[in-house]
Amino acid sequence: MSESTPSDRLEQRTEGSNYWMSLLIHVNRWLLVAVILGAVFCLLVVASQLGLASLRQIAATETGLRWLFSPFIGAIITGTSIVVTINQLVLSQELGAVGDQRDRMQEAMEFQTDVESKLGVGVSEPEPAAFLAELVSGIEDRATRLTEAMVADHDADRTELVEGFVDDVTRNAETVRNELDGAQFGKFDVMAAALNFNYSWKIYAARRIRHRHGEALSSEASEALDELLSLLKFFGEAREHFKTLYFQWELINLSRALLYISVPALAVVGVFLMFIDATTLYGTTLGVDNLVWVTSAGFAFSLAPFVVFIVFILRIATVAKHTLAMGPFILRETEFE
């Protein structure tokens, strides 16, 4: 296995295009929805100028508009029903008997207490971004202590190995702390910063140092390495917890967005089925039949619920794919620097 350290940023340490990964996890989703719908609209308008069948003729002789827009009614209503079901499944996880709620509370308090004990703080930060930043700072501090202890041992070979590992930890920790500063849970900023802290590799590298040089380490270096490993494990557990909450948050947001946009989309479909036919909107604008302009816009807007669903699910699925394993396991192919 290569001794090189993989990149810390998620999009740079996974297979595929960095631009595609950035598009999936960083670009504003509503902007992406608008771009996709705009592309559909433009494609339909351009297609009307390629000498194909006339939309007005199709609407007059083959009830083309009714054939085009009728399926949207069933699709939108069915999709909305599925979304409501998803929302109920997500919310059902928050429901339970008082005993279940007490167990959840107890486990959360125990985890927070364990972290506070290891960090040596009285009360840890309650906000996810600040809590993760506090953990990252603790990891950086233990890494620095490890280097100091190794230098005190006057072992140049081991010190050089550990310094490379510590440099990676401190550099990554500083970057992630800056990304977490001011980040608000519910937006993707917190998860993006957490994903850019490559804790799986760091656990592996720390355990490798323990395996190769554990017996030769001083008590101070051994203690710092043990504390570093403990905090890295805590970070992994915290990230998985916040990832679960983020998925629930996003699925609820998806449900609300689809419910909000489904009614206007159905209204547009109803307008085309009830009031638009081959005799409507005679004339041209910019050389394009007005019926083409209006029908293309109506078709694109009717697709909006489906496009919103795709865009939201793509980000959730992308994050889920690249965070399937906890701890030192790395499922994806890693690109080394």
What does this structure look like?
The chain is mainly α and 337 residues long. It has one domain. Helices cover 73% and strands 1% of the residues. It contains twelve helices and two strands, in the order ααααααααααββαα. Strands 1-2 form a two-stranded antiparallel ribbon. A hairpin with a 2-residue loop joins strand 1 (284-285) and strand 2. It starts with 17 loop residues before the first helix and ends in a 16-residue tail after the last helix. The model has no long low-confidence stretch (mean pLDDT 82).
- Give the helix/strand class: mainly alpha
Share of residues in strands: under 5%
Shape: elongated
Mean pLDDT: 82
What share of residues is helical? over 70%
Query: What number of structural domains do the residues give?
Result: 1
Instruction: Figure out the total of helices.
Output: 12
Q: Kindly report how far apart the N and C termini lie.
A: 14 Å
The major beta sheet can be summarized as:
2 strands, antiparallel
- What low-confidence regions span 5 or more consecutive residues with pLDDT below 50? none
Strand order of the largest sheet: 1-2
Q: How many strand elements?
A: 2
Using only C-alpha atoms, the radius of gyration works out to 27 Å
What would you say about this model in short?
By secondary structure, the chain is mainly alpha-helical.
